[in-house]
Amino acid sequence: PLKIKEGSVEFRDVSFSYNSDRAILSNISFYVSPGKTLALVGPSGSGKSTIIRLLFRFYDVSGGSILIDNQDIKTVQQVSLRKAIGVVPQDTVLFNNTIKFNINYGRVSAPDGDIILAAKNADIHESIMNFPEAYNTQVGERGLKLSGGEKQRVAIARTLLKSPTIVLLDEATSALDTQTERNIQAALAKVCSNRTTIIVAHRLSTIIHADEILVLKEGLIVERGR
Ligand code: ATP
Ligand code: MG
Predict the structure, then answer these.
(1) Best mutation site among 49, 91, 169 for ligand 1, i.e. most ligand atoms within 8 A of its Cβ?
(2) What is the Cα–Cα distance from 213 to 40, expressed in whole angstroms?
(3) Is residue 220 classed as helix, strand or coil in its secondary structure?
(4) Where do the ABC transporter domain residues begin and end (predicted)?
(5) Fewer CB atoms inside 10 A, N or C side of the chain?
(6) Neighbours of ion ligand 2 (CB under 5 A)
(7) Measuring from atom 7 of ligand 1, which residue has the nearest CA?
(8) How do residues 24-65 score in pLDDT, each as one tens digit?
């Protein structure tokens, strides 16, 4: 089985539709060098999250191909692909379990020190320490409700702990206060550094740091640049 090492990402003339009637993406081509950041912007429904889903192989392309390290992702074992890629989704759904379990997701069990370090880097450690049972606090239906910003930082901590070669970030659209936004920006900067990053960006502060920006409209790239 082929392995992912460098983490370059290429879309080669990709088209896609969820159900054959309507094209959602048409002729999408871009290349991201290892360690660089690509930002995707555009109106709601333009296909940004779909690009993220295709890269993680939730769906297969209808036309064209997606390559990582010059290998078509169809030839890469699903488990290698998902090990190499970390995803911070648009709306993080937490498991009905402890904070610790949620940061650990996808791993058997990381040492406590690693979990705490990831949480610190994601700027969520202090909030966790204020919860009734700290890292053993139950979240979700049975326990404490976390705010959107806190949930996203838990997802960032999970991704930092996983330490993938490629990071896919689907920035939350929800309004955040200035301090929370600053905390999340700092956490994102840590998760992106030295990793190939594709980020669906809604905030100017995120877009500024990208190496390339693609503007999507109705499934087409209508503008690109910095
Ligand atoms: P937003 O900024 O609101 O998150 P987006 O650019 O991420 O929007 P996508 O989620 O990629 O948009 O959706 C692109 C188009 O595909 C939309 O028209 C949407 O209705 C459609 N779509 C998304 N998911 C599905 C699905 N599972 N089945 C059918 N159509 C879908
Ligand atoms: Mg989206």
Answers:
(1) 49
(2) 6
(3) strand
(4) 9-226
(5) N
(6) 49
(7) 49
(8) 999 999 999 999 999 999 999 999 999 999 999 999 999 999
Point out the ligand nearest to the CA of residue 218.
1
Under DSSP, the state recorded for 120 is H
pLDDT digits (tens, 9 = 90+) for 105-114: 867 789 999 9
Q: Which two tokens stand for residue 176?
A: 């955040």
The residue to which tokens 């555009």 are assigned: 42
> Ligand 1 centroid vs 3 CA: distance in angstroms?
30
* Model confidence pTM above 0.95: no
Q: Is the pLDDT of residue 216 over 80?
A: yes
46 Cα to the center of ligand 1, angstroms: 7
ipTM, two decimals, is 0.98
Question: Rounded to an integer, what distance in angstroms lies between the CA atom of residue 98 and that of residue 95?
Answer: 8
